[in-house]
Please model this.
Amino acid sequence: MTSPDRQLKTPVFCALDTPDLSRATGLAAKVADAIGGLKLGLEFFTAQGPKGVKQIQKASDLPIFLDLKFNDIPNTVAGAVRAVAPLGAYMLTVHTNGGRAMMEAAVKAASEAAYEVVKARPLIVGVTVLTSFDNDDLAEIGVESKVVDQVRRMAELAKLSGLDGVVCSPREVAMLRSDLGDGFKLVTPGVRPEWASKDDQKRIMSPLEAVSAGADYLVVGRPITGAKDPASAAARIAAELAPIESSADDL
Ligand code: C5P
Model:
C-alpha cells in the first residue's frame, strides 16, 4: 500500500504546540485556508489524545502530521502505529535510533492497519539526530561520530528500513537530497520567513530557501501561531512559496 496521495495546498505544516484544545482548534480554523496541514506533537497529544486530534480535523479539514516520535521495541511501536491508524494521519514520526527492526515494524504496521481502517497509510518519517544535540552530547551517549555524519548514517538506515523520509534541519536538506535522491521525503522545521523573529531556532532558512534546497514539507510554528494575525502570516508564507508551486505545476 502506498502512502497518502492527498494533494497539499502548500508544503507548510503549521505546528500547534499547545496542550489547550480551544486554542488549537481556534488557530486551526484561522489558518486552514493558507496552509497544507497541521502538526500535532507530544504536547497536544499527551493532553488531548485521539479525541483532540479528531476535534482539530473537524475544525480544519486538513491533513495531520502526528509528530509523536515513537521509540520503543518493534512490537510496541507497531502497536502504537496500529493504535493511531484510525485517525488517518498524513504523516507520523519515529526515532531512527530505535533501529532497523523497529522502523520496519512501524512501516509494516502502518500498511496493515491502514489497509483495514483507512485507504492510504501515513508517511512514516524518522528523526535522525535531535537538533538540540551537538557533538559533545553525542559523545556523552557513546556516539563517536560528528552530528553531520550521524545524521547521514541514520537517514541512510531510515531509507534502508523502508521509511518514507526523515526530519532534518534546513542546513542538512541539500546534503540529504543528494545522498538519498528524489522521492525520499525531507521534512524541515527551523524555517523562518525574513520578516519573522528567529525565536530559539538557530539554524534557520526561509521557506523558499528550504524548498529550493530540496525540502518536501516545512514545519512552521511560531511565525504563524505567534503572529498578531495568524491567518495573514500563513497567507504571506504561502505567497512567498507560490513561485515554486507554480513552476512544479508546469512540469
Ligand atoms: O515555532 P517553531 O516554528 O520553531 O516550531 C517548530 C516545530 O518543529 C516545533 O513543533 C518543534 O518541536 C519542531 N521541531 C524543531 N526542531 C526539530 C524537530 C522538531 O523545531 N529538530
In short: The pocket of cytidine-5'-monophosphate is lined by residues 15, 17, 41, 130-131, 167, 189-190, 199, 201, 219-222 (CB under 6 Å). The domain at 12-250 is CATH 3.20.20.70 (TIM Barrel). Strands lie at 12-15, 37-41, 64-70, 91-95, 123-127, 165-167, 185-188, 217-220.
